[in-house]
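Table S5 (text form). Sequence records supplied for joint modeling of the five-component complex.
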Amino acid sequence: MVRTRLYRDGNLVSEGFPIAEVSDHVTDPGNVVWFDLCAPGAADLERVGEELGLHTLAVEDVFQEHQRPKVDVYDSHLFITAYWLHLEDSRLHPVEISIFVTPNALVTVRENAHFDIDKVTARWDASGDLAKNGVSFLLHGLLDYVVDAHFDLVERFDEEVEALEDQLFEERPMTRQDARKMFTLRKNMVGLRKVATPMREVVNTLLRRDLHVVTPEMMPYYQDLYDHVLRVAEWTDNLRDLMSNLRETHMSQQGFRLNEIMKKLTSWAAIIAVPTMITGFYGQNVPYPGFGSSAGFWWSSTIIVVASGLLYLAFKKRDWL
Amino acid sequence: MVRTRLYRDGNLVSEGFPIAEVSDHVTDPGNVVWFDLCAPGAADLERVGEELGLHTLAVEDVFQEHQRPKVDVYDSHLFITAYWLHLEDSRLHPVEISIFVTPNALVTVRENAHFDIDKVTARWDASGDLAKNGVSFLLHGLLDYVVDAHFDLVERFDEEVEALEDQLFEERPMTRQDARKMFTLRKNMVGLRKVATPMREVVNTLLRRDLHVVTPEMMPYYQDLYDHVLRVAEWTDNLRDLMSNLRETHMSQQGFRLNEIMKKLTSWAAIIAVPTMITGFYGQNVPYPGFGSSAGFWWSSTIIVVASGLLYLAFKKRDWL
Amino acid sequence: MVRTRLYRDGNLVSEGFPIAEVSDHVTDPGNVVWFDLCAPGAADLERVGEELGLHTLAVEDVFQEHQRPKVDVYDSHLFITAYWLHLEDSRLHPVEISIFVTPNALVTVRENAHFDIDKVTARWDASGDLAKNGVSFLLHGLLDYVVDAHFDLVERFDEEVEALEDQLFEERPMTRQDARKMFTLRKNMVGLRKVATPMREVVNTLLRRDLHVVTPEMMPYYQDLYDHVLRVAEWTDNLRDLMSNLRETHMSQQGFRLNEIMKKLTSWAAIIAVPTMITGFYGQNVPYPGFGSSAGFWWSSTIIVVASGLLYLAFKKRDWL
Amino acid sequence: MVRTRLYRDGNLVSEGFPIAEVSDHVTDPGNVVWFDLCAPGAADLERVGEELGLHTLAVEDVFQEHQRPKVDVYDSHLFITAYWLHLEDSRLHPVEISIFVTPNALVTVRENAHFDIDKVTARWDASGDLAKNGVSFLLHGLLDYVVDAHFDLVERFDEEVEALEDQLFEERPMTRQDARKMFTLRKNMVGLRKVATPMREVVNTLLRRDLHVVTPEMMPYYQDLYDHVLRVAEWTDNLRDLMSNLRETHMSQQGFRLNEIMKKLTSWAAIIAVPTMITGFYGQNVPYPGFGSSAGFWWSSTIIVVASGLLYLAFKKRDWL
Amino acid sequence: MVRTRLYRDGNLVSEGFPIAEVSDHVTDPGNVVWFDLCAPGAADLERVGEELGLHTLAVEDVFQEHQRPKVDVYDSHLFITAYWLHLEDSRLHPVEISIFVTPNALVTVRENAHFDIDKVTARWDASGDLAKNGVSFLLHGLLDYVVDAHFDLVERFDEEVEALEDQLFEERPMTRQDARKMFTLRKNMVGLRKVATPMREVVNTLLRRDLHVVTPEMMPYYQDLYDHVLRVAEWTDNLRDLMSNLRETHMSQQGFRLNEIMKKLTSWAAIIAVPTMITGFYGQNVPYPGFGSSAGFWWSSTIIVVASGLLYLAFKKRDWL
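The corresponding structure-token record, covering 1605 residues in total, follows.
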């Protein structure tokens, strides 16, 4: 299905019409048009750019990799880059969403289908009474969906941190799998921060009155959106602190375990070395007291038992065993 | 008991009347009304919102989780989110407090009953001579109580850090329980910072003259409140420094203990290995000097005692034992 | 002796008169009055507050614990909180000094007698030619004395860091006492920073022209004071860096020593294990070559000496011993 | 070939003419002249400086080492320093590029030939339709090429970090080569940051309207350039975070491996020490039960097998082997 | 020789005249006077202060220790504090240089002779054509010399860091001397930062137009100076990063070596323990198979060789030896 929509006076007039019709609708300033391109070719995009009068640089930016979330302000339109995050095999894959904003048109360009645009249209339909705000309303619904996704990820990472914390003080030492989890979690948090924190600047730019993007009625909604973005950024920072707490406590636990093992090693090595030394004495081929006699055997055995026993007790008392 | 209050000209006129009466009282601008909702349903809140003319977004925010302390400024009212912290089993549980502020009404919505609203009313009654400042007075008493609770927590954490410090240089090595305490303390400090530091911005926003929240007479009290908030933030930062000092010293002590153990291990292993080697020599089935004769026994015993004794003294001197 | 002073036209007119007379002197704007209270009761302070027209909040603040250095600007007076630091048993104890500043009166309230007010009066007397600047002059002398004390502490900590540095590369490993010193030093540095860095803001506020605290003649002196405060802050930051250098080098030295010990352990264990193995061979009750014959003894002894000697030389060459 | 170019009305009129002709062309304000000097002598540069009326300080700066990327604004011209980065044997070598910008001339001075100026001219030719913007156009092409090179390096470092991450959890412990790679990578990242982050300030200064460097048509292109610079800076910061994650996980893995080895050491040492102790007992020259009889042999062998076996099973159960 | 100079209209008129004549020259505003005091007494300085009308505070500041680089602006003159750094026995010793700047006089006060004032006069003579700028010219030459010295130090530290880096991956482990070098280097870098970074503020203050210190012709030279100061600050920050890279890699190498040693210890201990155990078996005084017969000897020897050989091969394969 083609993703196109035409709003007039806050009502959804038409949906799913071919993109070719867009240029007709756009000429009437009373119309508000949206359409979506998923992984378009360069030619498709160029044609769209010409029809809507978009700047060449903005159109080229869509295909550049490694962008950062940003708003570019051109004379007749805005160009916004944002990132959806797709979690697969516990790795984050950013999905670029390029957005062109003209006074009466919104174009969304998705890098691939991992970003589900139907969820956005559903959100638009759910708050239809605000639709008369036109592009301002559509853009809010879209960005709100993106930021909510960031939020869900922070929440998820928070839970994973909690899960790792619960394991921290269990008897069982941390395995290689746990270490990998911790590593991946931290890596993903860097990945999230990379695309989430610049959103502050993006939304803040949109709030500028001279851009006329946000209608008065939509203002509280954009401010709410801004608040969400701040929350994501703050929470990520908090998670970072929790992660260092986790990591450092983990390191300290490792050191603790090593100390425990060394203590036991010292102690048992000493306890076993003593009888070996004594039997060595009684194994000499020299006439020591008790050589070849039962008395020698009893002496040897007694000394072994007593010396080992005393050592054992001494170590137990110092909590070395 | 229903928590409602009606002030007129700085006097508490009525208390505990049903919430249904609120809308009547509110229409008279000479009245100041307060009421409290504890864990209300969505329907309850919506009705209140309609009666007082609150913005839908603000009403919805009450039910959103993972908020951050903030002030939202709407045309006709303010919406404040703050957090009470409830410590149970040495874990911090944030309790959200949502506050609606209109020119002559204050509504408090508590997430649950862990936040004891009676303590707030008691505080209001204690400084009744300021009551003629209306909502400004009520809001101050409420926020002051919340910030004082943050303050008490920092104080408590400070004491816990002190207690851990005292243990640091005791003979007994740190146990798993101590490590857990340190971990939890640090985690709680992150939790406190999360809800305490944004209060700076909250109180600072309230101090803005164009909002007309703070009456001239209340101004020094709000500035005092702001000072409290700053103190909480600064103290938390200080505690953080003390915690890293604690943690790093603890790590270094661990290393120190490991060195001690290794040194003793080396030394005793060497001392015990020497007699074992000598008795091995005298246990050979070859006619070494003294083989099978008393002279051999005396030589063997003498060498063992002298060699071990010399080693023992040498190690003692180097402080290795 | 009661600590009171009356200045008129830059001259010290009267000293040591009872506090009861203060209210008479204060009414004449040509007089400048100072008096000091050491650990006063709430009633004493309230009476003073009434006589000088001080704000209730400021008076109450004197008794609140855990303040931070600050200036509160009230309509008719200033309220300043600063901290003296008292070092006892190598622990820092902050002593709160509350200062009320009216156009012609200065009141100092000391938490306890550890802050020696006579040193301040001596400083006032030493620069008596500036006394005609009234309260501005008195306040400068007081704050200068407090900041100088902070400065002396940083200097002292600097010396302690130097002393610890000198020990760092000595043969003797760091003892528990050294570790404790390092820990306490760092803790004290946090304590100093807590009360010293907010002094920047305090002095900066006093420099504001609209407060009319600093007379034109005193301006360079206050700027000099500000410079001192900055120096304390910067030096503390530098010490922090030096401390981490110290701490991290110390950790690395620990690791170095552990490596040394492990290397020696490995080497000696190998050297001693070899003769033990050989004598074990010649102790077998089987007719190995040389069993029961002198040739066996010579072989055994030769192998032991040669094998151990070769190992020893090999290890020496690799710098393992 | 001499690198010179003459543009007139956006058209490339002449190329490769001798530098001596430059002074003639420059006098006509309708001409735009570019020429390039590679590793020139002091005399060459001075002559150019005189012809174009460049400030002595700017000319001297070309030969000063250890510059930082910057823009110096002189009355009649700009002097820009930027850095190309040349990667050889996995070490970064900065190549200084000095740029003089007058209203109708651009002079590029390269420290050495590692910076390939032909790539820049190719880029100019590729976007020839903007050439009518004169110096503004030429400068953009040059800086864009430099910043793209920084970008390529960050991308490359990102891949190297990824490659190191993949190795992190392999069975094989990290070798010295891997450690060296990690070290060099981090060093190179510092080197890149040193020359890349000040570019923010450089481009930002060029964007200042009062300098008249950027023509209106070029403005979006310079803003795009600025965005690239920001991306390089942000990505470098992200890489830094990923590197610390990598490094700390690596450290923790080392600790983990050490614990594993210690555990095995303890266990096997205990298992082998036990039979040695038992055979020692049966090697004594005293009439223990079974001395010289077959029963003794069976007892000895049974105890050895059973004791070792039990120990082995016990250790396996505790996951110590 | 007395260090005094008299300039008139940009020409050096007189040199080496007694300081007593200074007051005569200074009265003529067409004259520019410089003189230098090295480690003067308090009385000397006071007399100079009176002659030139310097503020008491500025004169006193010269003798205060632990200053920070700063500019104090008095009504009729400036007071500048800067630091020369003298490296002796690889320790940095700061040498305070106090500078008084009046409209037509420059006074330099050196803490001691380690700061060689002849180098400054040589620099003045080298750029004599700027001398008509009077005090502005002299001050620039002086500060430029100081900042160049800071720069040389950073360069030197950079080389030392490089030298340490080269050692990092050599076979030979780092010795105590290397650790000391690293420690001293880092300490010196803190010392340099302490006096170099505040120079930013110093030069920036001098650039303020309302101070009339910098003449229009000197402006590019002061901006160049400012650029130098920035470079020192940035480079120091970069070195800090390189140092942490160095230090952390060094720590990690230590851990790596410890692991290596532990692995070898484990392996050789196991290999040597096995023959000891076997010879123990054949040393028992019980009739094991082969007791007293040649078969026993061959069995024993074969088992020893085979078991040890197998272990050796197994360990080699796992890269444990």
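Note: The mean pLDDT of chain A is 90.
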